[in-house]
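Example 3.2
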Amino acid sequence: MISPEATMREFGVSETMALLEGAARGIRKAADDPDEDAVHKMRVGIRRFQQSIRLFAQFFRPKGVRQVRSDLKSVMTPAGDLRNYDIALKLVGAKSGAYRILAARRVEAQTALATVLRELGSEDLAARWKDRLERSNSAKKGERKLWRGKRSVQANLRRKMPELVEDYFAVGDTALQLGRSWEELHGFRLLTKRFRYTLELLRPAYGRSLDTKIELLRRLQTLLGDMNDSVVTSGMLAEVPRTERIRARLAAKAERLTHELRKLWAEQFAAPARRLGWQRYLVQYACRARSAPAAVTTPENVSEDAPNPAEPVV
C-alpha cells in the first residue's frame, strides 16, 4: 500500500519505469529464444507498459512517448499476427485442409517478428527508452491533463476514478445491447483490457481488496477474447476453399459466447447499484490505510475546472 501523501507524478513515473524495465527484458528474452511462452510473456509485459504510458503520458516528453509507442507497435503487430495464427491452428485442427495454409502463413509471421526483435532487442533498449521519456517539470501551455501531478495519489483517485468507471460502464451498456456490431464489441474488448490493466497499475493504492473487481474484468475479457479468436480465425479462412463448415462452427461459438457475455454483464455490471458500488469502492478505499473514507465524487459534484484527459485511458 502506498502512502496517501505520495504525489501522482511520483507514483506514475515509478510504476512506468518499472514496467519499462519488464517490457525491455521481455523483448530481449524473446529475441534470444522466440518460443511461444517467451512471446506470450513479452506481449503481456508490453501491454502493461503501454497502458502505463497511456495513463501517465503527461509526466513524460511527448515526442519520447510517441517514439516508444512506435517501437512497441512495431513488435506487437507481428507478435499479434503470430499469436492469431497459433490460435487459428488450434481451432481448425491438424486434420483440416486449411491447416497447412495457416501453418505456412504462421512461419511468415514468425520470421517477421524475429526480424523486428533482432533490430530492437539490444541490451541498451531500456536505457534508450528512459532517455526518450525523460522530461522537465514544465508543462506546455494549454496542455490537457488527466492527473494533477503535484497532488496526492489519493486525491487524484478520488477525483477521477468515478469518471473512468462511468465511461467504462456506459460503453459496456451500449456495446452489449442486442443488434450491436462486432466492431463495437471489439472496441469494448480493447477498453476492458485497458481498464483491467489500469486497475492492476493502481493496485498499490488499494491492496488485495481490488482483486475481486480485477477478476470480474478478467472474466469479461476471457469471453471477449474467445469471441475475438473465433471472428479473427473465420476471417483468416474466408478465402480458403472448403472451410464453410469450420466458419459456421466458429460463428456458432461466437454467438454462444456473446450470449454468455451479455448474461455476465447483466448479472454483475448492468444494474445502476453495481456501477455506484464500483465508484464508492474506488473512492473510499484509495490509499485507505491512513485515511478515512471519502464521499463519492460524481460528475454532478466534480469541480468545473477539473481537466479532461486528452484521450481515453481506460
